[in-house]
Structure formats: C-alpha cells, structure tokens
Amino acid sequence: MRMLNEKHKKSKMEENQLAMSGEFGFLTTSGNTKTSVLKMALDTQHELKSWSNQYSFQALRRASEVKGDSVENNRMQLSTQLDYKLLKDTNRLFVYAEYDDNEFLRLRDQITAVFGWRQIAWKKEKSSFGYSVGPGYVAFRRGNTGESFYDFIVRTTADFSYQFKNNAKFRHNLSAEMSEENTKARSVTSVTAKVFEKLAMKLSFEMTLDENVSVNVDEFTTQTSVSLVYQFF
C-alpha cells in the first residue's frame, strides 16, 4: 500500500512541473564608436497532466554613438505555446501566439497566431526531438512607411536538445513561416554550461531570414550573444 502511494505521489509530481529561468547579457565598446547592448530574457515551462505550456519574453536594446550622434534600437518579443496532449502524450494539438516589436528590422507590432499539430518524436533522459506544423495568420506594420500588412501563413518548427554529462546542454531550434508572397525563417543554436548551482553561462547564435522587411533593410541577419542564466526553479 505504501509503495502504491509513493508511486501515485511521484506521478502527480511529474504531471505538474514548473521550470523558470532568467537570462541577462551586457556588452559595451568604446573608441570611434560607443556602443552598448543589453539583452534580457525569461523562459517558463509548465508541464501538466493534459497540457505542456511554454512562455517566453525577450528584450534587446542597442545604443550607439558616432561623432555625437546617438542611435537607439529596441526589440521586445513575447510568445506562448500551449500543447494539448492526446491519448498518447507525444501526439499533441497546439496553439501558438507571438508579439514582436522589432526596431532593428523596422517591423513594428508583429502579431502571429497559429493552430496545428505537434509531435514529440522522442524524449529520452539525455535528448529530445519534436516538430510541429500548422496554419496561421500574421499582421505587422513597417516602421519606415507605417503601412500595415496581413497574411495567412503555414508555420513549421523543429527543436532538438541534448544534455551532456558535464552539466552542459545543447539546443537547436528551427522555425519557418511561409505565405504566398513572403518567407520568414529563424535558426537558434545555443550551448548552456552550469557555472555554480543555479547559475549558468549561455552562448547563443541566431540567424534570421525575413522577407517582410523594408526595401533598405537586410533580409538576412545574425546575432551572437554570451549571457548569464539563472534557474529560479
């Protein structure tokens, strides 16, 4: 009887798991050009019996000064994904929503909403792989002209993670949004290594291709960052 109770308590704990981490990075340069870059992020994962939910927030600020002229760009991104587990919990239906205000690409108030199918191909002790696909809708405004655009899209994603023995973790995320006129794709690769208890160092490399940008803005951009990550729980 005691063993049954212990197994029941353990399964309940596994069904209700909450993990939250915060990320902070700062870079400053001086000389002919004075530049400061600040990055902050917050990620939350919540596992329930019938749901698997992810919430993320990211803010990026870059301020530059050249010969007395100051230029400042900001980006704020909020996203959430709610996965509903079917009879087999590796088969899921999902809802994804994102708000992205990106002054770097001059894409303001970009809103994305997607509904579709998610599959966990495998989830082992050290590694996991999943993918998703679904139709959706996107709306955004170009910052230089003020024009608003609306379009139907198909969004696909793939994510892989691997946990090393030395408390280091590798993650790779791919996403693509395709419509009749434009394509948006993003690749994020990161390695996180534990420094002390709940504190870790994270190296991240991001590539983005966005055909929605204005005429005088590069469609392809990259971002490399080194930051500290604190695991709250």
Please characterize this protein's 3D structure.
- The protein is mostly beta strands.
- The chain has one domain (27-231): Outer membrane phospholipase (ompla), Chain C.
- It is 6% helix and 73% strand.
- The chain contains one helix and twelve strands; from the N terminus they run αββββββββββββ.
- It has a twelve-stranded antiparallel barrel.
- The protein starts with a helix and ends with a strand.
CATH topology: Outer membrane phospholipase (ompla), Chain C
What gross morphology would you assign?
globular
Rg from alpha-carbon coordinates: 20 Å
Mean pLDDT: 89
Strand content: over 45%
Q: How far apart are the first and last residues' alpha carbons, in Å?
A: 31 Å
Largest sheet report: 12 strands, antiparallel, barrel
Q: Count of helices? A: 1
CATH class bucket: Mainly Beta
Number of E-state strands = 12
CATH architecture: Beta Barrel
Structural class: mainly beta
Low-confidence stretches: 1-11
Task: Please give the order of strands in the largest beta sheet.
Answer: 1-2-3-4-5-6-7-8-9-10-11-12
Could you spell the SSE succession in H and E letters?
Answer: HEEEEEEEEEEEE
The count of domains is 1
Q: How much helix is in the residues?
A: under 10%
Protein name: DUF481 domain-containing protein
Pfam families: DUF481 (PF04338)
InterPro entries: DUF481
